[in-house]
C-alpha cells in the first residue's frame, strides 16, 4: 500500500490544475536506476493506467504505480512539506536502507 498525507494530496490536486493535466490523470510514481544512492523517484501525471498498474487513493488524490516500482515502494508514505524551509515532496520509504541528502535518491 502507498499512502499520501493530506498535505501531499492537496499539493497533487493543485499541481494537476497548474499543469493542465486532465481530470482523469493520476500521479504516476516510478523508481528508476540512478541517483546518488542507486535509485531515484520519478513523478509525472499520466492519463492512462495499464493492466499491471496499482492505484492507491488518499484524501481524494490518486497515485498509480507499476508492478516493478511497487517492489521498491510498498509501504511508502508520500508527504509534502511547504513553506520557506520546506523540501517539497518527501518520501518516507521503509524499503530504503540509505538515502541521499537531496531526498530523491535511495538504496535498498
Summarize the model shown:
With 108 residues, this protein is an alpha+beta fold. The protein is built from two helices and nine strands; from the N terminus they run E-H-E-E-E-E-H-E-E-E-E.
Overview of this protein structure:
The chain starts with a strand and ends with a strand. 24% of the residues are buried. It has two helices and nine strands. The protein has a single domain, classed as Hypothetical Protein Aq_1857, Chain: A, CATH 2.60.300. Strand 8 and strand 9 form a beta hairpin. The longest helix is centred in the first third of the chain and has 14 residues, at 6-19. A six-stranded mixed beta sheet has the order 4-5-2-3-9-8. Strands 1-6-7 form a three-stranded mixed beta sheet. The chain is an alpha+beta fold.
Question: Mind sketching the topology for me?
Answer:
Blueprint: E1 3-4, H1 6-19, E2 26-33, E3 39-46, E4 53-58, E5 61-66, H2 67-73, E6 77-81, E7 88-92, E8 98-99, E9 105-107
Parallel strand pairs: 1-6, 2-5
Antiparallel strand pairs: 2-3, 3-9, 4-5, 6-7, 8-9
Amino acid at each position: 500500500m502507498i499512502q499520501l498525507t493530506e498535505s501531499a494530496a492537496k499539493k497533487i490536486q493543485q499541481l494537476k490544475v497548474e499543469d493542465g493535466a486532465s481530470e482523469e490523470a493520476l500521479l504516476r510514481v516510478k523508481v528508476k536506476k540512478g541517483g546518488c544512492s542507486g535509485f531515484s523517484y520519478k513523478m509525472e501525471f499520466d492519463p492512462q493506467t495499464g493492466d499491471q498498474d496499482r492505484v492507491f487513493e488518499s484524501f481524494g488524490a490518486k497515485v498509480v504505480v507499476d508492478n516493478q516500482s511497487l517492489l521498491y515502494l510498498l509501504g511508502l508514505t508520500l508527504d509534502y512539506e511547504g513553506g520557506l524551509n520546506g523540501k517539497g515532496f518527501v518520501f518516507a520509504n521503509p524499503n530504503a536502507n540509505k538515502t541521499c541528502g537531496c531526498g530523491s535518491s535511495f538504496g535498498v
